[in-house]
Amino acid sequence: MSPNQRITVQTQAVLRVFLTDPTRQWYGLEISDTTEPPLATGTIYPILARLEGLGWVTSTWEPAGTDHGRPPRRYYTLTGEGATQAPAAIAATYHSRRQRLPAWLTPHLDPA
Amino acid sequence: MIEPILGTLPPAQRDLLERAYAVAAYWHRGQRRHSGEPYITHPVAVATATAELSLGLELRCAALLHDLLEDTDCPESTLTEEFGEEITTILRHLRHLESDWPTSAPENVLILKLLDRLHNQRTIQHLPPEKRRSKSHETLAVFAPLADRLGLPSIREELETLARTTLTADLDEAAHSPNRVLRIGAFLLPPATRQRWLAEWHADLRTLPDRRSRSRFTLRLLLHMPKMAATLYRVHPPAGGRARSLLRWILASDLRAWTALTPLLIWMAIETAATNLTDAVVLIITVPPVLAAGIRALRSRLR
Fold first, then answer.
1. Inter-chain touch B207–A46, beta carbons under 8 Å
2. In chain B, how many domains are there?
3. In this structure, are B111 and B184 located in the same domain?
4. Mean pLDDT, to the nearest integer, of A46-64?
5. Residue B120, in any domain of the structure
6. Which of B160, B199, B230 is facing A71, going by the closest CB pair?
7. Sign (positive/negative) of CA torsion B107, B112, B116, B121?
8. CATH assignment, A9-64+71-102
9. B133 at interface of A, judged by CB pairs closer than 8 A
10. In A10-106, which ranges are E strands?
11. Could you tell me which residues are beta bridge partners of residue A74?
């Protein structure tokens, strides 16, 4: 996916979750429960893999040592690159369809 | 066996390395690893790792000799005579690490210690469960941060993934989770990424409250596995041309692709049926069309 390619509705929903709090760490299942509407669980991971491949998000293991009674999760965060390129790419998708930008997106767009 | 360690070293240096191999092979003769392999395979693997990092001749030799003082009767004086003070000093350091070694030991000793652990962690399945667990915890707590500090992030990543997979697999056996099904499905993914995603899914699976939602999650993951494979093969194109052309050859004909996939499907169905019959029926109805779409997608990507 090159940035000027269209971004699917699901990918948009995932990016929106990340953009609501650009520094927060999320794990996969948590994201698919947070999106509006919720994603089918399986779809989230290919999307995350692709965003990670683009460098828009990065992921790390939850630090070891704290015992939560479950294996450590893989957490995802938006990168600086993702924070600037994702809104632009979503906007480009709307422009190419000659649709109005959604209100939530505007605050994330670079004024320039 | 030692060709990869020699790498592009000039002939004069090859001599010393070949001698180090001969000395190590002599003193480790008759010793075996937990896997049953001759012991010498371990120092050779560690030395190969030093060569892959393009480390110098001294460290490559020290890697070949690294267990002689600890585990054999080889006298230190022999090593000094044969290989000089510099290499012997590394070995002596390695043997007598202080309790605060991750901060106090010299960098080349730390690198050696790290690569030693990397190979041990790669072959950890041969250790008894209790030891496997404690070593994996130590890898996460001590060696992963050390790799980071030494500027070797890819080694840190591999160590973490290996250790977590070990700890997760052990938990798994205790809990009889439906993870075996996922493990089979994950064969579609590029081998280098498989462990990471399995560990991640396993953790997310553990978040779900009951068995029913867990099997639904597993099923959905399976359905999206071809998509996942296509995405990952695009993000990490297979390095070797051979794997790629084999894959292309298999995918080129429907018969070959389904010959490869059908036993997998049957196995998946049987595994699922063992926990939930309805899921197995759903799997048989829904997976083949999705797989067919996945094959078409992969085929067009690889062309």
1. no
2. 2
3. no
4. 90
5. yes
6. B199
7. positive
8. 1.10.10.10
9. no
10. 26-27, 57-61, 74-78
11. A61
